[in-house]
Amino acid sequence: xxxxxxxxxxxxxxxxxxxxxxxxxTQHETDSFFCDSAGTxxxxxxxxxxxxxxxxxxxxxxxxxxxxxxLQKDDFEKFDYIIAMDKVNYQxxxxxxxxxxNASEPKIMLMRSFDTSKDQIEVPDPxxxxxxxxxxxxxxxxxxxxxxxxxxxxxxxxNEL
Length: 161
Description:
The protein is an alpha/beta fold. The chain contains 5 helices and 4 strands. Helix 4 links the parallel strand 3 and strand 4.
């Protein structure tokens, strides 16, 4: 089973949406994939995703029920891939990993490195934006997640899943 953790700042917008998209795309492959999401900050621990992101997910026919949590040291042992939404969170992930002496080596990557339409390398935080900003983030994450799944399937042929 391939285990993926999506990470943003507060774990109420981008990373739970990425988790929801991933779960939706892999809903018939539950023995092959597991995913979760987390934030690098403590701002929203225990909260449900932002209402605007929940509504957007419902519009695309899936639910977001994740409760925000902070990235933990043991996540480096639990997950094969840790996917950051932007460069700041990528650096925060690396910083925490470097403080974990016995950390395994999950692959830490930027989400948009899998985007087929790379107009930028980061998934912008839509929190202070408009509904259009949330839609743009959905489109970025959907494209990136589909491409990331193709990458995973190529890296881990079916007999390894």
